[in-house]
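Table S2 (continued). Query chain:
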Amino acid sequence: VQLVESGGGLVQAGGSLRISCAASGSIFSINAMGWYRQAPGKERELVAAISSGGSTYYADSVKGRFTISRDNAKNTLYLQMNSLKPEDTAMHYCATGPTIANMIARPPPIDSWGQGTQVTVSS
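Corresponding output:
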């Protein structure tokens, strides 16, 4: 599976941004999908994940602000980010995994990673 992220950019604090991840290749094998982020000097962390059945997981830091969704017809994963804060600044990576529980584990047994898209929130 190949994953290509898009939609990152620079936004002011309080603003919104939607990032996307287009999947191609052996998409029939995709189960859970998720968004991770990594800020300079910090570990990569799971932001949100969604199962093939639509169950979702959110990190406490983004609950109520971010929404993850997937369009199976378009083979695309989305992350709608509202009320952005400077601490949301990071490289955001799309990933696929066996289950949401697997994606939460450290280290997560990720099947595929995207190349990342930068999200920068100015104060």
